[in-house]
Automatic annotation (TrEMBL):
Gene3D superfamilies: YVTN repeat-like/Quinoprotein amine dehydrogenase. This is Ligand-binding sensor domain-containing protein. InterPro entries: WD40/YVTN_repeat-like_dom_sf. Keywords: Signal. Residues 1-28 form the signal peptide. The keyword Signal applies.
């Protein structure tokens, strides 16, 4: 069986996202990276006022000049992080911490009826409210100085909020979405446009185009524009894998003029906005379609290795972080980097 990813607003059908042939890395020269002390796995990139923080599995690092400087060390593994009420909030395997950006002294906060919660989701919504998900306990919303339970589903894997004020929760029994006062659940058995291919939702990846990528154990689907198109479509755009079967996806961003960039266990993969070769026509009556290799693999950036975190900021700069380092590229610099790699791929293919 072949699986397809359909983006109606892009006016084209994309076969299961496979790879172009890999070519030798070109000698692109992006700006120097910031080294990550301890070579820990990045968890979150946070901007608070004029400051930029990189949160890793055990540290909070602040960008100061050409260095990432450590300001806090956690014994418990940090799994998620966000900014709220001028502070940094850290979700760890052993509880929830509020960290002042002035003193960096941690304050432990309790969730109702939960001792040492295993915090797996932590984010703010469009209304400025803080949400916390704890595996084995459910989902909580901060109201004033206390937390109120919003969802009792025990197996919480992640959560995000979208610009339309919706709150999304990834669980091991489906995907939950709160829009206004109502919760909606998407699962394999869903009806009335509430069906997704798999009940085990492992992570939620919002991109800078307003799309939400739902990563499941056996598929990836996309709620376009925060679910507005998904609610109207009979079927969600879905693909079985990106790159190759079993390839873990860490993040996705759209770089203007270049395409969609995926950070994966296989490395950086680019789906260009305009494929170099035209796509074959899709005929609904046929059951045999020759898959096209659309994804362009990009070489590792010097000093960064394989990024596991990527984000586009409001200034259209691309931030890429891995255990080795953090690098920042303008959209123009990234486009040049991708063009050089594409030219090298074409040269290799013609030999």
């Amino acid at each position: 069986m072949l699986f397809f990813l359909k983006f109606p607003c892009f006016r084209q059908w994309l076969p299961g996202l496979l790879l172009l042939s890999v070519s030798p890395a070109v000698q692109a020269r992006p700006r120097p990276p910031y080294a990550v002390p301890g070579h820990e796995q990045p968890v979150a990139l946070l901007h608070a006022g004029k400051a930029t923080y990189l949160v890793t599995q055990h540290s909070v690092l602040r960008l100061e000049g050409r260095r990432l400087v450590s300001h806090f060390r956690s014994e418990a593994t940090i799994q998620c992080a966000t900014t709220h009420d001028t502070a940094l909030w850290l979700g760890t395997r052993q509880g929830l911490l509020r960290l002042s950006t002035r003193t960096f002294r941690p304050q432990q906060l309790a969730l109702p009826g939960v001792a040492a919660p295993n915090v797996t989701a932590l984010f703010g919504d469009a209304r400025g409210q803080l949400w916390v998900g704890a595996n084995g306990a459910g989902v909580f919303r901060r109201a004033g100085q206390a937390f109120e339970q919003e969802l009792h589903t025990p197996a919480i894997n992640g959560g995000v909020a979208t610009a339309d004020s919706a709150v999304w929760i990834a669980t091991s029994i489906g995907l939950s979405r709160k829009q206004g006062p109502e919760w909606t659940r998407y699962n394999e058995e869903g009806v009335a446009n509430h069906e997704i291919p798999d009940n085990i939702v492992e992570k939620l990846l919002p991109d800078n185009d307003g799309n939400l990528w739902v990563v499941m154990s056996d598929a990836i689907c996309v709620f376009e524009k925060g679910g507005q198109r998904g609610a109207a479509e009979a079927e969600l755009p879905t693909v079985k894998f990106i790159g190759r079967p079993g390839n873990e996806v860490f993040g996705v961003a759209h770089v203007p003029g270049a395409g969609r960039l995926f950070a994966t266990a296989q490395g950086l993969l680019l789906l260009p906005d305009a494929p170099a070769t035209p796509l074959p026509g899709f005929v609904a009556a046929t059951d045999k379609i020759e898959p096209q290799r659309l994804l362009q693999p990009l070489p590792a950036l010097p000093g960064v290795g394989n990024p596991t975190l990527l984000a586009m900021d409001k200034q259209q700069r691309l931030w890429l972080a891995g255990p080795e380092g953090l690098v920042v590229l303008t959209a123009k610099e990234f486009r040049q980097f991708a063009r050089e790699q594409n030219a090298a791929s074409n040269t290799t293919a013609q030999r």
